[in-house]
Each structure stands twice: as structure tokens, then as C-alpha cells.
Amino acid sequence: MTRYELACDKRVTLAAIISESAMIVACVLLADAALEHFSIQTMMASHVSLQAAIIVVIAIQYVIATIEIVASYRDDNRGATIPIAFVPGGIILRFVLMVVAIGAVVALKLLVYFLSVLTAFATQILRIDKWCSTAKWVDFVDRFLEPIEYGVNRLYNWLYFNKIRANSSVFTSMFNGSLSFWCINH
Question: Distance between CA atoms of 152 and 170, rounded to whole angstroms?
């Protein structure tokens, strides 16, 4: 079995889904253990020790990083990657960095899209839609955000082993931030 065949195997996708689901549960247990460590009451009856939760999160992190490296052979895109995934807590840090980078761009884009729809609806009701075009606003914001989206996608490619097209929309990096979604799409 070649690397490409192994990377394209459905078991890799299944392993990504299982390991990322386990990572979510482990992060919830870690958060609960951290809150319990600082004497903040949570809704869980029995708590996991902080050390055990940290060990489980780090172990699952390395499993996810290994699966990501194997799955990266599905695509021909290659490039340098900052190996932040191998630092303890690196996958969580990488996820937070991408959420911050993507969040500002997506929030602005969605705000303009929704406001343009509302404005278009209002201008049609008032019968002034011939004079007031909201498509120009959307085009202006898209042209303005295009280099920023390119930069966010380049950041994604620097942080993740599985690469995406840098000239695509910022929504590509948002939806491919999860290894499971990336595996399903590729």
C-alpha cells in the first residue's frame, strides 16, 4: 500500500473523526479538572484529576497530529509547516489562532452580507432599489478583504500539515480547520 492509498483510506477519515471527538471530550474534562482545581464548582459529579486530563489531551493531540500527517498525502499541495502541533497543547493553540484570524474576517463578511440583504429588501419595499444598489457594497468589501483572506489561508497552510488553496475564500480555512472535515472534503 502506497502513502497515497493509505492516506485515502476510509480508516484514516474514521480515525480522524474518532480522535477529534475524543479530543472534544478530553478538553471538556480538562476544563472541568482545571475549574475543580481552582475550587470552582461544575455540574459534573465526579472529577478527573488535572494531571490525568492533561496527559489524555496531550496523548490524543499526538494521535491527531499523526493522522494529519498521514492524511496530508491525499493532496498534492506541499509546503513548509510550523510544527506547532507537536508542542504540548499545540493543536488547541493552533485552533485558537485560526479562530481569531478567521473570526474577524468572517464576522465582517457576514455582517455586510446580511445588511445588504436587509437593505435590498427595504429598498424594494420603498421602490428605491434602482438608485441604491447593495451589490456594490458587497463587491467593495469582497475586494477589500481578498488580500486578508489570502493571508488567513496562508496562515492556515503554515500551521496545518493538510494544505488548502491560498486563493480561495476564508470559509475554506474555516471549514477545513477540523481534520475530519478536511478528510471528508479531500
Answer: 7
